[in-house]
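queue> holo job accepted (zinc ion)
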Amino acid sequence: MPQEEKTTVSGVPRSEDRYDAQRIETKWSERWQQDPSLYAAESKSTKPKYYVLEMLPYPSGVLHMGHVRNYSIGDALARYMWMNGYNVLHPMGWDSFGLPAENAAISANTPPREWTLRNIGNMKAQMKRLGFAYDWSCEVTTCLPDYYRWNQWFFLKLYEKGLAYRKKSKVNWCPKCATVLANEQVVDGCCWRHEDTLVEQRELEQWFLRITQYAEELLRDLEKLEGWPEKVRTMQRNWIGRSEGTLVDFKLEGGDDSPDSTIPVFTTRVDTIYGATSVQLAPEHPLVARLTKYNDPLRMQVEQLITEQRKAKEIGDIGAIEKHGVNTHRHAVNPYNGQRIPIWVANYILMDYGTGAIMSVPAHDERDYEFARKYKLEIRVVIMPQADDPEETVTEPPLPFTTMQGMLVNSGPFSGLNCEEAIRKMSAYAEEHGFGKANVTYRLKDWGISRQRYWGTPIPMLYCETEGIVPVPEKDLPVILPEKVEITLSGGSPLARVPEFANVTCPQCGGPARRETDTMDTFVDSSWYFYRYTDAHNDQAPFDSKTVSYWFPIDQYIGGVEHAILHLIYSRFWTKFMRDMGLVKNDEPVERLFTQGMIIKSGAKMSKSLGNAVSPDDMVGRYGADSTRLYTLFATSPDRELDWQDEGVEGIARFLGRVYRYVARHAPGTQQSESTTALSPEARRIQRKLHQTIKRVSDDFQGRWHFNTSIAAIMELVNELYLVEEGGVRSSSPEDGMPPAFLANVQRNLVLLLAPFAPYLAHELWEMLGEKGNLLRVAWPKYDPALAKEEEIEIPVQINGKLRSLVVVPAGSTEDAILEAALSNEKIKAMAAGKQILKKIVVPGKLVNLVLR
Ligand SMILES: [Zn+2]
Ligand SMILES: [Zn+2]
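queue> job finished
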């Protein structure tokens, strides 16, 4: 931190010299709110566009510090882009459906809508007090019918295209939420909201969106997203989980020709199939129920396996499960060679992964090897290492031998092929003979969107007593969520208990029908909200396609890494679907993504439940919005974890006070005409520092967003100004040392540099400098590389005490830098070639002497 300045000559600071953040921020906040067009995007503009977006919050009622950090990054960027002449879209909205509103309704007896809208009001006021430059004219609130009617409209379009469908399926059920969870919402076997609550399996009729239809494209297009963090792309890649392999049908020995007697197995290594010595089924595989039907002891053993598997899911690591299995004493037939191999049931095979059945090849798979050793199953080698020299004899490799660098043996007509070739030929062979084919599988599953909740978008479907599923006609949208509903957290959908909602007349046959009473997963709301911002009041369509094609893709999206998978995969899917509908032209919604680090305090993530949360209101009340915001950017680089220290905010407030007082002292009398007086060495130093700082801050905005170093550079500039002032340059002969016009220019630039980070103070100082007009429209300062260049000095380089060359280095270079310059000098290099350097003597700023032999 900069040191404290001395008091003024009289010893008492003038009152206007005191930095009063509350006074300044209240004054400017009022002015800004009088001008709603201040941050509005231009509808017709010749400027280049820039769409900067922070993830919209859930309206819990108060902002937390993580929000402040996220929005401070986005706001700094938006202001920087405005100052760089862009037409900026910087909107904000509310992800306002969801369970907490229902919980509040129960605990506080407040209707969800009322609770939510009141919270929005609070948080919006907080955002305004913090000075975030949002265009509130395009605010989006997802729980209002003018928004969610388009969720319903999209749902009908998805249904028309066969991308929304209903099926009975095992669902993840959180007993605490009393609702279905998507696979993505199950974390380590528990509910994502209730980390201590085990998720159960139930059978229910659900609506699904066919996201798997886009699996391949979602995967492929990750390559295009170069502006995304690599870790996010990797997480998405793993989530989609593509694997290439072969589907092979084993037959149940003694079974019939029906599909019931077929055991499809997916393998990535069909080349090892002659080494298969058992087939292993998931305990919940449908065939297992049949095989154990009349075998009570076996059934009980299988139930034990199911219990073990469930426990492993609870702990979250099915891969680490202690592997158990039971022999069914039935056999399957390997279609390649007709060999019969035993069928086992194993606790580490999952029904919801692949086909729920595997072939076990102990010689060539780590896990199968472990299992076979444990249960003394046969181990048969079918791949041998390839000899480099054909003459060489190959000995059997240590097992398990799992690499693809090998050759097939004991594999009938495929013996002698290398693994890669064998996979290709054996897949083709299976297809030819009708017992399998090459296949690609994905870990990604279709998106189950039905929720047995009240506070969400009603799904616009009806169930006619005679015709079955009937979509609500488009003209009848929106299906309005009724207001007076008794909310309980158990017993299924609250809407089912509202007869005037649930009982309807079928629009097709006029007969009685029942309305779908589940609501949509709230991830539907956030899948396309950022399109709505561009045209938030459209009541004819979700948005105008032309407007969207002007603004999209989003140039910069900023939010927490916890949304790296779900929200970002769903919204990518939604974009591709809208593109296929002809609504948008872009393939991807987001060009660049930034994920900020989280905030911790006293070693733990800041949270209300841990009692270590710092309230933004409290910080703003004590130090002001500028200091609070600036601190979140200064404490560390935005991508890293921030360890919160209240003293840090105080330090920032002191720094802003120094800036304020400097300008308060120097602003008057500096607005005179250009002085022609030459600059003193001190002024030249200031000038150099200023241009270096402009370069540093501009580079940080365009590069890695190390705003902490940007702000540190601005602090150094302010220190320099104080040093010169304290050195008495002005007091001896002000006009000679720091011409007023020069000093005015330095202060002007200092304010512009601060404008993206501390907007309130910047506006106040701007006015104090006698400047007029909207600071956002003032051009960002440019640096002159010549002026930014460090002053250079010549250093003589001696060899054995004799002057041999001169090197030019920046003034103030370190010993190492000077030595490096000397050693890389061509002349010195030539003279030192082949010799031993005994000693290197560096006198900084003076000379280098090398002692050679
Ligand atoms: Zn839950
Ligand atoms: Zn009907």
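queue> The mean pLDDT is 90.
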